[in-house]
# Entry
Amino acid sequence: MDELFPIGVGILLGILFSLRLSPLKPLWRRGLLVAVAGAAATIASGEYTVSWGFLLVDVGEVALAAWIALAVFAYLPRLIPALKRRRE
# Structure
């Protein structure tokens, strides 16, 4: 259950990144948001008491989930009209 938080936050960040909002355009800001979300996930789950190595795992999970969500939501508008054309 502890791994659902970083994945959920990563999906939300990916959706935000796919909207192409001007404050989120610089790559360093996206990276910073991913790192902060991963750190928050590590601290919220209490994994930091075992090892700070979990920080790397959680940041990676947030980054991967954000990347997948960004790819899906960037490609989805192209996919839906193609599906509608096939049905007609």
